[in-house]
Amino acid sequence: MTIEHVKILVATMTGTAELVAEEISDVLTDKGLQVDTLLMDDLDETVFGDPAAVVICTSTYGQGDVPDNGQAFFEALERERPNLSAVQYAVFALGDMTYAQTFCRSGDLFDTLLTSLGARRVGDVMRHNASASSLPEDDAGDWAADWYDVLQAAGG
Ligand SMILES: Cc1cc2nc3c(=O)[nH]c(=O)nc-3n(C[C@H](O)[C@H](O)[C@H](O)COP(=O)(O)O)c2cc1C
After folding, report:
1. Can you list the domains of the chain with their CATH numbers?
2. pTM, two decimal places
3. Of 19, 44, 112, 144, whose CB count within 10 A is highest?
């Protein structure tokens, strides 16, 4: 099935993941895809309703937690356990290696949850380290271009 539509779902505390989502959106839009960027605040499992690939774009806070604006969405998925076997997804995780024990854990939590609901990850989980020299929004464009190619090769 050809994917023509991508939804970028954003969990953020201080807005960096939103900048990353903007970059990803720009690249995928230039490739000809329809892209919707949605903060996770008011989302529930119905966001997976139409045929679209999903990019989870999330930072990590607290003791390796999902940011506040994504917690209700995460819990709704855990509770409702929708069948996501038609969903292809990617994860762009923002974190900081200073938090070695919980580096990018929110991205890993979403990855594990979506896989357990039957969704299929396309590509590796991207983990950006805020202590590295590159800005995540600078890495995001290259990542999105690579991911587009992997998605096409995967039949998306
Ligand atoms: C109080 C606090 C706690 C954090 N906890 C973690 C953590 O447990 N693991 C991690 O990888 N990064 C952690 N980070 C780093 C953020 O995830 C990282 O700076 C990210 O780029 C912020 O993105 P945002 O502006 O979209 O929220 C923490 C940052 C702060 C300020």
Report:
1. 5-153 (3.40.50.360)
2. 0.97
3. 144
